[in-house]
Amino acid sequence: MLGASTVIQLELDPPLDMKALKNFAISTFDRSTIKHLPPSLERLEISYSRALQRFVLPNNFNISRVTIIKTHLSWVELQRNDAIQMLSIVLSKLQHVPSTLKNLKNLTNIKLQQSFIHQLNLDLLQWFPGLLSLELMQNRIRTIKSTLNGGQQRKLESLNLRHNQLRIINLEVLSPLGWFKYVDLSHNKIELLVGRFSSDRLVAIILSHNRLKALDFCQWKPIPSLHSISLDTNELTRVPNCMHHLSNLSYICFSNNKLAIVNMDVFGEMDNLTNLDLTGNHISSITFREEKYPKRLKELNLSENKIECNNPHEMPFCPLDIEFQPSSPDSAWKRNNNTLQRQLTITTG
């Protein structure tokens, strides 16, 4: 019950259907608190309330959105509630995804950010037929698991797991990753990405700021929907094998890796590739062959490549060798009819 000494700061912010509670000085939010709120409330925000440790959402609380920011929340009970569509808990003491989350079957957006969650089971996706986004950024997630298969597929928008502690991703047992349009696994500690993978939905995947030393896509089925992949700031020493399995990519970022020599043959079957970023590698040589090259490439960024000189005392700088090899003595490239060179902007320096 709310006593006379209880401190609650209620702030009525526009729109009028939202109530903001700041400096909430009660350790538990439950039915006894809710009865003091207006019945027409649709959105609730609790923020900067370090006293709050327990949150109970009753089944008769007709509210569509709950946001809880910067509390000591460590225990959550979510009773069956069909009204809730968005749940956001940021800066809490949560160590697990609440098991009672499945009682909110109409959730479309879930955010559990900047907490202490250490494991994610993607089986939770089966609980929410209308889910669009799942965000668990800045936690301590080390493992992802799932028993779901293609027969249980959902059409999802975004999965954001950046800034966690993932090391190994076995795609073989993570089919649900292919159900999202956008997947962000950046700023983890990923050293190994393995296993068969397929998707008819994935549009963009971000794997930047990890520890990948090698990667190949040979076990990936062709993904026509995939248009963008970011692998910047890893430790790759060569371009991944089987890039042709991602033939519809329009943007690829390999910046800030350890690539040294790049043969553009590996991108030769990628007719939609327009932008290739190779900034900040150790590339000394790029070779285009007339027989096999990305036909629509427009931007090639080779800036800030750290080229080691064989004879540093003989040359003031080490040139980057960009070669266009004609297919025959009388080919179009040999006759200076090189459409690629005319359309391509190469950035160096």
From TrEMBL:
The keyword Disulfide bond does not apply. InterPro entries: Leu-rich_rpt (IPR001611), LRR_dom_sf (IPR032675). The keyword Repeat applies. Keywords: Leucine-rich repeat, Repeat. PANTHER family: LEUCINE RICH REPEAT FAMILY PROTEIN, LP04042P. This is Leucine rich immune protein (Coil-less).
